[in-house]
C-alpha cells in the first residue's frame, strides 16, 4: 500500500475547492501534513479514523480555515465521521443560519459522504430548546443524547447542559455503558469535565460522570465550550480532551498533559490495542500527539 505519510499540499487553492473564501484562505493557510500515528506500520492500520471539533458555528474565517484543513486531511487520510461537540450554530442556535455555519464550510466533506454527529451545546438550546438542531438530518442526532457504533468504537453523545434531564440521562447512560461490547468507549458532550480554561472544572459533571466512566471503562471524553485545546493525563483511566473555536487563554493543572490557546481540531485513530490522538491547527500542523493504550481485560 502507499505510505501513510500525509501528502504535501502547498496551498488551499491547489485543491480546486469552490468555497467562497478560497482566495483569502489559499494565501493565508498553506498546508504541509505529517503522519498522525508516529508508530503506524503497513500491517497495523487503524480500524477507524475520525475527527472531532467543537464550537464550530461561527461562520467566520476561523471556522472556514479549520473546515478547509479538515477537508485536506480527509483527502490524504480519509475518515468517515466527524464529532461536533456542541455550539453548532451561534449565537442562538437559529436553524436558518445552517447554510452559513455548517453546510457551506463543510460542503466538501458532506459531498464525500462524511457523516457528522452532533452534541448539543448551551448556545444551541437558546432557540426552540435545540429541537431544530436535533431534527436537522445532517447532525445525525437521535435525541438530546444517543449512542452509535462504528467499527470497534461505541460513541455516546450527551446533553451536558444544566437544564438536561440528568436523572433519566444518567440512567440511560449507565444502562448502555453496561451493555457495550466494543473495545473502545468514547463519550462526547459540550461542557468540559476537567478544564484549565475560562470555565474551569465542572464539579457537577465530575460527580455525575466520572464514577460511570471509571466503572465502565470509558477511555476518552471529548468536549468544547472552553475555547482552547487541552488534553489531560488519564484521570481514573479516562483522558479528557477539550477543543473549541475562537481561542481563549488556558492554563495548566496538575492533571494537564498539554494545553494551548490554539484554533484546532482533533483526529483520533482507533487500533485494536490503542487510540492515537493528534491535535491539528488551522495550517495543518500536528502540535500534539498522544497514545491511549487499551487496558488488558
Jot down its keywords.
disordered N terminus, 7-stranded mixed beta sheet, alpha/beta, Purple Acid Phosphatase, chain A, domain 2, 297 residues
Describe this structure in words.
The protein has 297 residues and is an alpha/beta fold. Helix 6 (166-179) links the parallel strand 5 (153-157) and strand 6 (184-188). The protein has 7 helices and 13 strands. It has a 7-stranded mixed sheet, with helices on one face. Strands 3-2-1-11-12-13 form a 6-stranded mixed sheet, with helices on one face. The chain is globular and about 40 Å long.
Query: Secondary-structure element sequence?
Result: HEHEHHEHEEHEHEEEEEEE
Q: What ranges have pLDDT less than 50 throughout 5 or more consecutive residues? A: 1-32, 38-42
Structurally, how many domains make up the residues? Answer: 1
Extended strand count: 13
**Terminal Cα span:** 32 Å
Overall pLDDT: 87
Per CATH, the class reads Alpha Beta
How much of the sequence is in beta strands?
Answer: 15-25%
Instruction: Name the overall outline.
Output: globular
Strand order of the largest sheet: 4-5-6-7-9-8-10
CATH architecture: 4-Layer Sandwich
Q: What is the CATH topology?
A: Purple Acid Phosphatase, chain A, domain 2
Helix proportion range: 10-25%
Class inferred from helices and paired strands: alpha/beta
